[in-house]
Amino acid sequence: PAPCERAISSCTHMLAGTWITLLSLSGVGAAASRRAASPSSLAFLDLDEFDPVAAVKGIPGAVRDNLRIFRAGTGAMWRNRKAASVVRKRVKQGGAAASYSELLLLRKSGDDAQKLLQAGVVYLAVPELLPAMLYFFPRSLPSTFETDQRRARRYETIGRLRSKAVLQLLTTLEEDAATKKGKKGARAAARLETAKELLRAGPPPRAVGALAPYLPSADDDAKQLQRSPLKRLEGAALKAGCGAIGLSGPLPGFVRRSALRKHLQHVAAEDDVLAAALGRMSRDELLEACFDRGLGAPGASAARLRRELSHWLSLVRTTAAAGIADAAEPKRDPDPARVRLAALSACAVSSTRAEAGAGLPKLLYAKSR
User: Could you tell me the end-to-end alpha-carbon distance of the chain, in angstroms, rounded to an integer?
Assistant: First the structure.
């Protein structure tokens, strides 16, 4: 009967959504997707090799594993929230300033709660989209739910998105300069020349000089800059900046702008105490800090990551100095978020060059024998 069919369909839909959520949070779903996409996994579709008894027997173990991850993740979120509240209270009462690890705790505590709420809304509205959200937005999973394997995959995904963002932006700049006319064409040609100058400059300390004209003074309508320092950042550059920090997918411009601005302002606040913390940071903390700044590679050593972060700190000081030198009134400091965006751009180009050195772009531009 039709009512029974609808009830069965509804129950099946609910169970499928639940399993998608649990498997996505544990990272099993991503691994299964990769196996299904590989040519050697086509046997997975062969019903002769499918063992329903083994599949049913494996359900209790999978449920236990996923529930364990869920309990551990929510428990860690609660502990982080309590610790962050203590830090906020101490700073508000005039106590010691927050250290780098405490600033990171404050950021992750707020971000994780927001991410869990967003995942819950997506699951309640369209549960089938949750795996797609985790794929397009690798930072959308709360940090306390991440396993070591999923964290490593997240870094690999961000590295690919970073390289893709750089290459797509360069292609867009060339296309705009060739097709646009009038004032838009003149602006496109100027941006193309800036990109060429940045690429010819080489290492980031020299590359940021090409971006100095794009660093407005923080004293020029300071309140407006504080609210929206990236207001005049055009679409292609905004999309590339988001891609460099691992934010991709179909998003409206105001969401991209807000997310990138928030990220850059967090980085600027953390840079103030990063130098004092470098020697005490673990490799995981170093890797997280590097990927926040367009640097790093999943297989890099702790010594290399510390060196790259030291170069970053020198770079933002150099970028700020370059912005002051090009400003109408040298006493004014450039906006911190714009300074970090310029440094992020130069570092993303450098990281893309390092990653592309062993990939298809190297083969594309290599001389044929």
Answer: 70
